[in-house]
User: Fold these one by one.
Assistant:
Number 1:
Amino acid sequence: MSKNSKVLNLKDKISGNEVDLSLCNLTEVPVRELALFPKVTVVDLSCNNITSLPPEFCNLTHLVKVDLSKNQLTSLPDDLGNLVNLQHLDLYNNKLTNLPVSFSQLRSLKWLDLKDNPLELGLAKAAGDCLDEKQCKQCATKVLQHMRAIQEEVDRAREKRLVREKELERKREAKQREREAREREARKREKAEEKEKRRKEYNAQKAALAAQEQQKKKSEEKKKKNGQAAADKKVAVESKPKPRPSVIGLIFKLLLLLLVGLAGVAAVCRLTDLQKEAFCLPINAAVDDGLSWAKEQQVVLRQLVQNLSTAAKEFLESTQTSKN
């Protein structure tokens, strides 16, 4: 069946502001088609095989009265509370156990029937029997109160959850800040240690360079000092005045040469065949006289030494006697 035929069939079922789709063997609600007729505020979907309502059903905010009795509904959409104009809702004889929390937002709801549903105990107690018009109106009022209480509990639970989540988030942020602070402190400490290490290396290099420079300077000063000392010594040696020959020294040298010459002549005249020559006779005679004089002087010298020894011995004896 095409879309156009569906629209035409839906038109055939519209009467004023009402559309009757009961006993049509429907398994789903024709939401798109209903949305095309915003003037239809009363929808009868009873006695079908509908098991669920699509989320789009909650967009039909123009609906005032909806009959979903005698279907197979097991749940209602979460956003059912968007139907703010809904006043009459018939859910008789379905398979509902709970209502969505947003049900509390149906502030216009005046009539509600929840008979013959396997409702949970609290909801069943609030719904009551719904045996007549008055009880169905009371059902609407009490179920809305019940759902508002549930909504408040849900809101409180959500608020607690949000508070808990915020607290957890705050703790996570605090831990994150602490971790970041520790990391920053660690990086700062590492930078400080690295800087201190570089500073020590720089000071060590500077000290080494200073030591090398000092050693070099000392070496240069030592070389300069040694060179100066050598230069001063050389200058002192060069500038030292040469000894001037004295007259006595010259005379001594001349006499020594003369004596050597005479000794050589005497030796020649004394030891060679020239001793009989005429010029050697006086020389040999002088040598003989000298030797005789030396012998005489030797005897005199020996006598002088003997006399000195005797005098010294007597002096020692007299000294020893005076001591005793």
Number 2:
Amino acid sequence: MKIPSSSHVHMLPYLVMLLLLPLLSFSADPDPLQDFCVADQSASSISVNGFPCKPASNVTSDDFFFDGLTKVGDTSNIFGSNVTGGNVLTFPALNTLGISMNRVDFAPGGLNPPHTHPRATESGVVIEGQVLVGFVTTGNVYHYKVLTAGQMFVIPRGLAHFQKNVGVGKAFIITAFNSQLPGAVVLPFTLFGSTPSIPDDVLTRAFQVEEQVVESIKSKFSS
């Protein structure tokens, strides 16, 4: 019988780790360690990565159902769109489960402005209307397509993307995420509406425009 050399034995743990790495990257959130952990959002003094669990004795069937995405969002704003979140903040039963959904409503011509989700990949389906969906890769390549009802899209995690209603009437889409709280960095508000504000000389240099242009844009997003 051939005895494995010591070098092969020493390599075994590294090979096992290489095999496990893809499995560790399937989910954006950690795997749960129990059947459920309905978020106890009243425990505001406790700071954890997520929320503490409501005692199982206090959990009811209603905790596992959510009708928030049935409601049409108010699109009377500067972008003509509205995002209704179905995440752990509005649907506490999603706590530790690594999933969430949004409903996005669009007025005619409405835009869900360029943004990123730092903690999740996004997939979505058009329910009504015609929607232009686009994203830009880290290689600065713009991918886009106009979708109609029933067609799906996917946005890789962390990439800047947008959706715009290009049809004649209203539109809405349902999106899903592999995180209970994917987060959203909405670029116009982040760059021009932060508190405190980003210095003008940073933005004028970044966008190669005059200071008055930056001030004009900031005035539209100041709280």
Number 3:
Amino acid sequence: MMSLVCLSLRLRAAGCHGSRRSVATVVSGNKTASLVRQRLQMEVQEMRSVLSGFRPGLLVLQVLQSVLSINADPAVHGLIVQLPLDSVNPMDPERITNAVSPEKDVDGLSCINAGKLSRGDLKDCFIPCTPNGCMELIRQTGVSVAGKQAVVIGRSKIVGAPMHDLLLWSNATVTTCHSKTLDLPEQVGRADILVVGAGRAEMVRGDWLKEGAVVIDCGINHIPDERKLSGHRVVGDVHFASASQRAGFITPVPGGVGPMTVAMLMENTVQSARHFLLKIQAGG
């Protein structure tokens, strides 16, 4: 599937006299997958001597070796890295996500897939699942994205940034807002389509919205609620009660974007398996 793979692993040996080591591999040609595996195995072996005796570094190597093993396993068609990485030792998530083969990166978070998305090569990459699910929800409303004013709140690599790219390549005029945006209510008020992934409970109020706007709420937050046995309830980044009075369409939390994210993950995995089978049939 890939004519060019650029896989960059930056492995830092913080405990080795304060030194830094980085390795980068660029491989092209028809035998990309096997060449990438061979080169990465050589790099991992090289780093063993550098990181020997440094426990966090060895942990990174173990994780990378696991990723390499899955990359090479033809029975596995998709690999996701659960973020944030659950470890008492700090690990750079970029090192791990970029080690995943682009052909199995069903989360669409590696630099290869993210780069292709930013360039508009939507048919030659895996699209991150939550933004892809948001686009499907927008399509289901019947509202055309082309020519609309779209506002995205949040610029994370998982939601905000790829959401901006998807809306842009669908011919919307897109504004990205974030923690430094000064006139957030004014920006939101211009939006025909609003996608929120800020991580702040019920931040967007109903009176901010343009009448009839499409509102996609990606937030998951817990707020105190004595009426619940757990002592809290789940809400989004949009104040649903007030926003639903003005929005033309709005997603609930929970039960809105979340199930679509899972559905898009399954779609990407099936797509990966299909490409693998076509490659076998072509003798690749």
Number 4:
Amino acid sequence: MSEESDSLRTSPSAASLSENELPPPPEPPGYVCSLTEELVTKAREELQEKPEWRLRDVQALRDMVRKECPTLSTSLDDAFLLRFLRARKFDYDRALQLLVNYHSCRRSWPEVFNNLKPSALKDVLASGFLTVLPHTDPRGCHILCIRPDRWIPSNYPITENIRAIYLTLEKLIQSEETQVNGIVILADYKGVSLSKASHFGPFIAKKVIGILQDGFPIRIKAVHVVNEPRIFKGIFAIIKPFLKEKIANRFFLHGSDLNSLHTNLPRSILPKEYGGTAGELDITAWNAVLLASEEDFVREFCPPVSVCDSILGQALPPEGLASDAQCDDSLRAVKSQLYSCY
């Protein structure tokens, strides 16, 4: 019998399916590494990633998810799980905890994660509150530029800004290059007033820092703050209790001294607004990237789901986060901190 005949005999045709029976979905494509040789070497040295063991490690994490958290609704694709392994330097237990936290964070903050797609955030994107610069830094890190002064609180709540940040991180982390190199944040606090700063209280700080440190598979290599007014001392006083020491040590406050900024981020990669030579700051290119990804986010960005009780019951809250009661207690001190610094 010919090969074609075998195929016809063993594979049901569309005509043979009942009216209510659909063909099985195609298997996801196998993982194909897109890293350059240089990045493969970097991943080996910094992340303990061994190409010859990569798929074995992914399978080990997949088996752990199925065994320890069978009701966790998550993608188990090679490429998706690899993000969490890289973010935790191929420590299986820590990668699993990060994956659980990732879904738990989304489940616990519906105001941010419900209906999370680019078309729902057009106002934030158009405001220029955030963008990704077109050039990476010397280490290959993409630069996420955040400008709080572009936000007008009367237009929409602060949670819309956080949604835009998370959406951007989701898009960035799709790149294996970003998974290995990490990102840099450039925050411009020029013109941030006391009234605007008061929107960023302990509850918001706890949630955001919890996601960035313990609930998202990305490596934050540095946070450069420029043009910060005196009020920023109050903002940082709110943030600092939630920061791990390693992350706190990666904050650099430059004030209006752009020469200080340029010792870390060369002028050649910065827009002229920050003393650079890379032209004017353009938000349209990154906005177009996000809006062009609408279908991907609608199809692949899972909604918050219930996480199995066995994992969440045993898992400690993300390290470094205060309880809600602690946040309530500290809220009373926020305005006095801000006023004293203003």
